Amino acid sequence: MPKENSNSGVVMGAVIGGAVGAVTALLFAPKAGGQLRSDICNQLQTIGSRAKEMAGTIGTHAKELAAAVGTHAKELADNVSEQTKETGSKLQEDAADAYQSVKSDINSMAPTERDLKKLGKEMDEMPTHSELRSKGQVPDPAQ
């Protein structure tokens, strides 16, 4: 059961219990009819004013709670937003570093188009692993 429903149930129970108790006490008190009706009316007015006070207090507390929840939710949203920005920046930096690393590796193997063509011809002339094995040779595991 949500806390708001639980609190309102307690308040409602207190109001009803107070009313029943007051009416019961007045009914069993030895008084004249006019005096009894007047006492019942006074007690009901007292209960009504207490109920209004309690409702006002509950309303104030509910507003304070709603404001606190709203503030906390905004703080959480701001925190998530900041962490997302930081993560995005870090990912961009990592991607740029990886790009530069790959780019430098490519340029170290064949810095020019001519070198790249030469490297391609050399690789075409190299025997494959299966060709080396068929000749009884052991292939280089790094290749």
Automatic annotation (TrEMBL):
<keyword id="KW-0472">Membrane</keyword>
<keyword id="KW-1133">Transmembrane helix</keyword>
<dbReference type="InterPro" id="IPR024623">
    <property type="entry name" value="YtxH"/>
</dbReference>
<feature type="compositionally biased region" description="Basic and acidic residues">
    <location>
        <begin position="112"/>
        <end position="134"/>
    </location>
</feature>
<feature type="region of interest" description="Disordered">
    <location>
        <begin position="103"/>
        <end position="143"/>
    </location>
</feature>
<keyword id="KW-0812">Transmembrane</keyword>
<feature type="transmembrane region" description="Helical">
    <location>
        <begin position="6"/>
        <end position="29"/>
    </location>
</feature>
<protein>
    <submittedName>
        <fullName>YtxH domain-containing protein</fullName>
    </submittedName>
</protein>
<dbReference type="Pfam" id="PF12732">
    <property type="entry name" value="YtxH"/>
</dbReference>
<dbReference type="InterPro" id="IPR052928">
    <property type="entry name" value="Desiccation-related_membrane"/>
</dbReference>
